[in-house]
């Protein structure tokens, strides 16, 4: 009697454990997919940006409409930092991430297509 009830409890416990493991497994797989696709999209975005040949003049216009409020009309800094000689501090990939992912809270993330991002990047390279 005691043995059978304890083994039933044991079975229940194992079933419960199995279910928890299954849930854990499914969540892990979903997270894996999420990170994989997210990363792949990001990399494609960066590749597309670096492949296109931006124009500094277009980039200047994009900067004037989106960034001057915080970085100043001459990019000498206001709320945000001075962006001159930025390209000596950050590489292109880091700059793209800074703009599109909003890694630092006061600065918003921008939804900008790769072509315009390449213009912006070209402009930032002129700020030596
Ligand atoms: C709402 C204000 C705001 C706007 C708009 C804004 N930024 Fe910023 N940006 C900041 C702040 C604040 C920082 C500094 C964040 C930090 O260092 O934690 C920053 C940091 C940066 C950096 C990193 C600089 C460094 O030296 O680390 C880059 C590059 C940058 N911004 C580019 C841009 C570009 C390009 C735009 C326009 C598309 C833009 N920002 C629009 C506020 C802004």
CATH superfamily: Cytochrome c-like domain
Here the CATH topology equals: Cytochrome Bc1 Complex, Chain D, domain 2
Dominant shape: elongated
What Rg, in angstroms, do the CA atoms define?
25 Å
Annotation field: number of helices: 6
Unique bound compounds: heme C
> Kindly, what is the distance between the CA atoms of the first and last residues, rounded to a whole number of angstroms?
85 Å
CATH architecture: Orthogonal Bundle
The description of the largest β-sheet is:
none
- Model regions low in confidence, pLDDT < 50 over at least 5 residues: none
Q: Number of DSSP strands?
A: 0
**Average of the residue pLDDT scores:** 91
Please describe the structure with a list of short key phrases separated by commas or semicolons:
6 helices, 128 residues, 0% strand, mainly alpha, binds heme C, Cytochrome Bc1 Complex, Chain D, domain 2
Report a brief summary of the structure.
The chain is mostly helical.
Task: Describe what you observe in this structure.
With 128 residues, the chain is mainly α. The protein has one domain: Cytochrome Bc1 Complex, Chain D, domain 2 (Orthogonal Bundle), CATH 1.10.760. It is built from six helices and no strands. α1 packs across α6 (114-126) and α2 (56-66) packs across α6 (114-126). The model has no long low-confidence stretch (mean pLDDT 91). The chain binds heme C.
């Amino acid at each position: 009697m005691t043995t059978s009830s304890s083994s039933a409890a044991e079975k229940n416990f194992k079933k419960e454990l199995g279910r928890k493991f299954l849930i854990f497994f499914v969540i892990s797989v979903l997270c894996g997919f999420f990170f994989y696709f997210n990363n792949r999209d990001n990399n494609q975005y960066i590749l597309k940006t670096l492949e296109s040949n931006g124009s500094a003049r277009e980039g200047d216009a994009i900067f004037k409409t989106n960034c001057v409020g915080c970085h100043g009309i001459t990019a000498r800094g206001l709320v945000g930092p001075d962006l001159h000689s930025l390209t000596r501090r950050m590489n292109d990939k880091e700059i793209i991430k800074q703009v599109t992912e909003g890694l630092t809270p006061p600065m918003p993330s921008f939804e900008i297509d790769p072509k315009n991002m390449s213009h912006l990047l070209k402009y930032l390279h002129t700020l030596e």
